[in-house]
């Protein structure tokens, strides 16, 4: 339902809105023209013009940041058993980080839960039942107390 498609072709997107071939090409490309279709600007770095490179750096995607919050969010998700967030993370625990329109960061799994299920009950936190901190699949998430979340995390580490 939320399978991300490469921004440059019809293959399944892996990261930054690109399939593995285009992402790798972008990473190592030194082409004189921007590698985004129909963009005829000179590339400056990684095969992208300054505008597309800036989008990638600021938003983690080549997608137009004027897209709806919903479309921007799902452009960063690769759907499989886990719905894997493949953009920015918090750098410590690996939980995905999504930036709202006003610049406010939110944990990606919280945004997914609140958008697809509803508000997280007061006093509860979200536990990843799959133990994958990048997962945003609501079927793999459960609101629990902080104490229960910590207990489950300790149990998982000792198994």
Give your account of this protein's structure.
The protein is of the alpha+beta class and 159 residues long. The protein has 2 domains: 1-67, no CATH class; 80-159, Alpha-Beta Complex (Homing Intron 3 (I-Ppo) Encoded Endonuclease, Chain A), CATH 3.90.75.20. It is 29% helix and 13% strand. The chain has 5 helices and 6 strands. It has helices spanning 20-28, 50-59, 69-74, 108-116, 146-157, and strands spanning 77-79, 83-85, 97-99, 105-107, 125-128, 141-144. The protein has a two-stranded antiparallel sheet with strand order 1-2. A two-stranded antiparallel sheet has the order 3-4. Strand 3 and strand 4 form a beta hairpin. The longest helix is centred in the C-terminal third of the chain and has 12 residues, at 146-157. The radius of gyration is 18 Å and the shape is elongated. The model has no long low-confidence stretch (mean pLDDT 83).
What attributes does this structure have?
single chain; 159 residues; alpha+beta; Homing Intron 3 (I-Ppo) Encoded Endonuclease, Chain A; 2 domains; two-stranded antiparallel ribbon; two-stranded antiparallel sheet; 5 helices; 13% strand
At a glance:
With 159 residues, the protein is α+β, with helices and mostly antiparallel strands. It contains five helices and six strands, in the order αααββββαββα. It is elongated.
Give the total of domains. 2
Oligomer: single chain
The number of helical runs is 5
Strand order of the largest sheet: 1-2
* Helical residue percent band: 25-40%
**Gross geometry:** elongated
Q: How many beta-strand runs?
A: 6
CATH architecture of the largest domain: Alpha-Beta Complex
């Amino acid at each position: 339902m939320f399978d991300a498609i490469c921004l440059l072709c019809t293959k399944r997107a892996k990261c930054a809105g690109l399939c593995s071939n285009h992402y790798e090409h972008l990473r190592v490309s030194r082409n004189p023209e921007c590698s985004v279709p129909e963009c005829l600007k000179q590339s400056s770095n990684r095969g992208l013009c300054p505008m597309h490179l800036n989008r990638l750096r600021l938003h983690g995607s080549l997608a137009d940041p004027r897209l709806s919050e919903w479309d921007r969010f799902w452009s960063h998700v690769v759907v499989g058993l886990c719905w894997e967030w493949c953009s920015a993370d918090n750098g410590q625990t690996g939980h995905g980080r999504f930036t709202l329109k006003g610049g406010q960061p939110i944990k990606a799994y919280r945004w997914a839960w609140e958008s697809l299920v509803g508000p997280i009950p007061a006093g509860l936190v979200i536990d990843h039942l799959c133990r994958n901190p990048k997962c945003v699949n609501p079927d793999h998430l459960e609101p629990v107390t902080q104490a229960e979340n910590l207990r489950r995390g300790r149990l998982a580490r000792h198994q």
